[in-house]
Design goal:
The chain has ten helices and ten strands. With about 270 residues, it is of the alpha/beta class. Bound molecules: zinc ion. Zinc ion binds next to helix 4 and helix 7.
């Protein structure tokens, strides 16, 4: 954040805090708390604050307004921090974005969904697992990895097409997803499933910052085996279509879309 943008930034922070109880921890500002010393730009940009606000508004509007949003998520602290290869992380009441690169609107919604789940004792993802007919079993997962048709190794995925652990139970968590998620990999579990399902719901057919990505996530299964996608790389897309490509390519026909829609409209109860 440039010094010239500090007024913009503090107004934005005040709005996010008062309206949505989203508290951004600034990493910019003067060296000393009394306003002396050199200006430190930090890693946040004006564009990122806009992106954060837009995504927050998008989710809050879908939920029925700022009051519903704060009821679902509680207060949330948002910060930048050093992290590995992924772009974001969420705990109860806290979201971190990688200080190395920028983040997308998709990542904001994904992490906010985790914060929502966390604020409800992670029962949103348990409810999604149940609603979609999935279950988690390390035992059955091991059986599948040892004796069944699996697309991963015993203790990890493999960095090649058709071996990234996208089938049911072929992941670290032993997660057997039900119905059709928009994708799966070795790190998939019911919490990641919930976060991705919320992001898909927000983006699907809604013409916003998440929509192109939501559509690309589904359309990749129309590719041939071995085809390369600019964002998703090479995989045996056609083989995976039966697990991830919804009827007629219409994501609203999946149980996940219906679940998030029901949850947002208070038709599924998640007792916290
Ligand atoms: Zn996640």
């Amino acid at each position: 954040m440039k010094h010239s943008e500090s007024k913009f930034a503090s107004d934005k922070l005040a709005l996010l805090r008062s309206k949505y109880r989203v508290q951004v921890l600034p990493d910019w500002g003067f060296e000393n708390p009394d306003g002396s010393g050199a200006w430190r730009q930090g890693t946040w940009s004006k564009t990122e604050l806009d992106k954060l606000q837009n995504a927050t508004t998008l989710l809050a509007d879908l939920m029925g307004g700022a009051r519903k949003f704060t009821k679902n998520l509680g207060s949330v602290t948002v910060k930048k921090s050093e992290m590995g290869t992924h772009g974001g992380e969420a705990l109860i009441h806290e979201i971190s974005f990688s200080s190395k690169g920028s983040f997308s609107a998709w990542t904001v919604i994904h992490e906010m969904a985790h914060a929502w789940d966390a604020n409800n004792d992670w029962k949103c993802s348990v409810a999604l697992e149940r609603y979609t007919g999935g279950y988690t079993s390390k035992f059955f997962s091991l059986i599948r990895k040892l004796f069944g048709k699996s697309d991963c190794g015993i203790s990890s995925d493999e960095e090649k097409p058709g071996r990234r652990g996208r089938l049911r139970g072929c992941n670290a968590a032993g997660y057997f997803y039900g119905d059709q998620p928009s994708g799966s990999n070795w790190n998939f579990n019911r919490r990641e499933d919930f976060a991705e399902a919320v992001a898909m719901y927000v983006g699907w057919g809604t013409n916003n910052e998440l929509s192109a990505w939501a559509e690309a996530r589904i359309k990749r299964y129309l590719l041939k085996n071995g085809a390369s996608h600019k964002n998703f790389g090479v995989d045996n897309w056609a083989d995976y279509a039966e697990y991830f490509y919804p009827p007629g390519g219409d994501y609203t026909r999946t149980k996940r879309w219906k679940f998030v829609n029901d949850l947002i409209h208070g038709k599924v109860e998640v007792d916290a």
